[in-house]
Amino acid sequence: MAEDEEIRKHLVLVKPISLEDDNDPEHTASNVIRRILSLFKNVRPGSDLTNFQLPPQLNLPRSQLQCYGEMVYSFGGQDLLGECSRRELPIERLKSVVTWNLSTFRPVVFGTSPYNPVVGETHHVSNGYINVLVEQISHHPPVTALHATHEKENIDVTWIQYYTPKFRGAYVDVEVKGKRVMKLLNRIEAYEMDQPRLIMRFLPVPGAHWAGKIKIKCSETNLEAEFHLLSDSIIERFRGNNNNRSVKGKISESSSGDKLYDIFGHWDRTVMAKNVKTGELEVIYNAKENISELKPPTVKKPQEVMETESTMVWSELSEGILKKDWERAREVKRAVEEKQRESLKQREASGESWVPKHFSVVKNGKDWDCSPLQPTVPRAPLVITEPQGES
């Protein structure tokens, strides 16, 4: 018991990013824009920011791995992932996949950033029947792999994600690469999904938002969805019209191109689907029900927490940030980064290359792909809620 309590003390579990973070006065754009611009005063436009290091004052008390995992395991309402397989009609399943995809978007806390994960870092959390495992499979460039499985509905989700941030003077353009695949194994269907871009704008009005086109396609059902995350024009932002979370798109048959539904709304409010034949409207997503008042995981089985767990790797840094002990935070951050550099030197000296523990990785030029080594993700020691009927 004493050892379990010691492990719990070393785990800093913070509330997931949710809609409430938009109104947090700690991160208002006016408070952070001057600090950000001071960081970039010697950075030339077009520079690659992949290796750019932020001071602790601009870090969120969580790793980027946790942010990726939260997109899948953290939700406040209905189990949207399980719903994708429960629907009987193919068109209803595709609409459910669109709904689940929308639920993975979270507000971006402008002016702050999660920690850049160290290679080999992991994050393993369960929520109900959903088990999620994330691993950092490369540090330079930063590449993350995610595997999630739904025990009850036999759903398998794999992501590989890597990005290239570019400084464009008035904004930073983050191109997110990789692919997302959801397999409904009971239905023998696979849904492939694109990933959006992240735009962090400094001028004329500071802010951060998701943008770009997302396509979801299922070859087995001959159905696809395509929607755009729309960005405001500079003129509209000057006028104070905030519409940079709007969604507009369609669902159609892949072979004929015939449109079946129009999709429109805002991913931070509600998104509607309109049947083009009948004119019937339905709300397919309600952000307030799903990404509000989110709860952090709790430590269910301390002895099973891996040493590579994000909350273990960064616990002291997170404590320093939460206590605003910036000197301590800087020391801890340097220590973690120095440990990673030393491990890299040792591998290079011995001619070894890093081998991920949970994923098989394929690299083709600048492109990455991966597949999980295990068919399902086991129940995690960090838990949000137990499956119904269990304790």
UniProtKB/TrEMBL annotation:
Function as written in the Swiss-Prot or TrEMBL entry: May be involved in the transport of sterols.
One Gene Ontology term of the biological-process aspect is: lipid transport
Cellular component terms per the entry's GO annotation? cytosol; membrane
Keywords attached to this Swiss-Prot or TrEMBL record, sorted alphabetically, are: Lipid transport, Lipid-binding, Transport
Which InterPro entries does this chain map to?
A: OSBP_sf (IPR037239), Oxysterol-bd (IPR000648), Oxysterol-bd_CS (IPR018494)
Q: Which organism is it from?
A: Thlaspi arvense
Q: Where is this region: Disordered?
A: 370-391
Q: Which family does it belong to?
A: Belongs to the OSBP family.
The beginning of the lineage is: Eukaryota, Viridiplantae, Streptophyta, Embryophyta, Tracheophyta
Q: PANTHER family from the entry?
A: OXYSTEROL-BINDING PROTEIN, OXYSTEROL-BINDING PROTEIN-RELATED
What name has this protein been given in UniProt? Oxysterol-binding protein
> Listed GO molecular functions?
sterol binding
* Coiled-coil stretches noted in the UniProt entry, renumbered to this chain: none
